[in-house]
Specification:
Elements: H1 5-16, H2 18-42, H3 47-58, H4 61-72, H5 75-93, H6 95-124, H7 154-163, E1 177-181, E2 187-191
Antiparallel strand pairs: 1-2
Length: about 190
């Protein structure tokens, strides 16, 4: 279904200001009904039968009005507007329910935003190094404690750098060890 620009403009205008068009439609329908009654009176019917027969042949005025409104306006937007009005009327009848819904939405959106921000920073955004996807971590595992891993001593790292023919570069990173006060239990060592 295609509309010309003029028809689209007229439909939009009818959607925004339906009252003048409705009054014009009422006047036109009344004149058509009056014309049909006069025709029936000319054909020899009684005034009561002439009006009854004209109303029957004319059909229901409300159905005709609705058909005309649909043809001159934007039914999708009208339906959408009616749905919004109904939704707001329903929501304002139970403000506690609305508060729970809004709070639930706010918490859900906030949680999703937080999770996405963290995931974006950790997984999606590349590291600020060239070829970050080819980086590896090298640890030294002491024989006495194989469950622990630690960075190699500086002298060993310098030897690895001199003898390196596999990696593009070798660098040392180290975390700092700090104490975390945990209340009555004292302090606990953590790596930062």
């Amino acid at each position: 279904m295609t509309f010309s620009f003029r028809e689209s403009f007229l439909r939009f205008r009818a959607f925004i200001r339906p009252t003048p068009l409705d009054s014009d439609l009422d006047a036109e329908m009344a004149s058509h009904l009056q014309f049909a009654i006069e025709e029936n009176l000319k054909n020899g019917m009684s005034p009561r039968d002439a009006e009854r027969q004209a109303r029957i042949s004319f059909g229901g005025p409300q159905q005709s009005k609705e058909k005309h409104r649909e043809s001159r306006s934007l039914p999708f937007l009208e339906s959408l507007l009616q749905d919004f009005r109904f939704a707001f009327r329903t929501l304002f009848k139970s403000p506690s329910f609305v508060a729970v819904v809004i709070l639930s939405l706010a918490l859900g959106i906030g949680a999703n935003t937080t999770i996405f921000t963290i995931m974006n920073a950790l997984l999606y955004r590349p590291l600020p190094y060239s070829h970050a996807d080819r980086m590896v971590a090298i640890w030294e595992i002491p024989l006495a404690h194989p469950e622990q891993r630690q960075p190699p001593p500086i002298a060993e790292l310098l030897d690895w750098q001199k003898q390196n023919d596999v990696f593009e570069d070798i660098a040392l990173t180290s975390g700092n060890e700090s104490s975390l006060l945990s209340g009555a239990n004292g302090s606990e060592a953590i790596r930062i």
